[in-house]
Design a protein that fits this description.
This protein has 154 residues and is α/β, with parallel strands linked by helices. It has one domain: Rossmann fold, CATH 3.40.50.620. It has a 5-stranded parallel β-sheet, with helices on both faces. Helix 4 links the parallel strand 4 and strand 5. It is globular. The N and C termini lie far apart (37 Å).
Length: 154
């Protein structure tokens, strides 16, 4: 079984993540959505809420798992016995950065990184912008995966 690690500091509605996961599942057996724990980075939802929302969203897809990690991505990829690391990109600037990181990861671990662009309609919107719009009470449903419940559940 081939396993891909999809790392990040995901809010459940990270822009474009659904299309990345869907496409990854066309060539990989299992995708582990790995939520990085970064105490300094503000997210709209707490870690447990993020994990639960992502699990619920992918409840009908047994090939997607969710895990959290607080170490280097390459160390976590080894722990998870990942065959690939998947990174989502929206812009050429993202591509240049991720390509450099992919090369470093490959040299340090031997694990290949696959860079997947989000679908074209997502390229001009960032997760940060969506979170900011939410903070001001704006409707962001058009940027979210279909069926995503964005209520901040207590």
């Amino acid at each position: 079984m081939k396993r891909a690690l999809f790392p990040g500091t995901f809010d459940p509605f990270t822009i474009g993540h659904e299309s990345i996961v869907r496409r990854a599942l066309t060539f990989i057996d299992e995708v582990v959505i790995a939520i990085g724990i970064n105490e300094k980075k503000h997210t709209h939802f707490e870690l447990q809420q993020r994990e639960e929302m992502i699990r619920r969203f992918y409840a009908n897809e047994p090939r997607v798992r969710v895990a959290s990690y607080d170490c280097l991505t390459i160390d976590f990829a080894r722990q998870m016995k990942a065959d690939l690391i998947i990174r989502g990109i929206r812009t050429v600037k993202d591509f240049e950065y991720e390509e450099t990181i992919a090369d470093i990861n490959r040299k340090l671990t031997g694990i290949e990184t696959i860079l997947l662009f989000t679908e074209p309609e997502m390229t001009c919107v960032s997760s940060t912008i969506v979170r900011e719009l939410m903070q001001y009470g704006k409707d962001v449903s058009r940027f979210l995966p279909k069926g995503m419940n964005m209520e901040n559940e207590e």
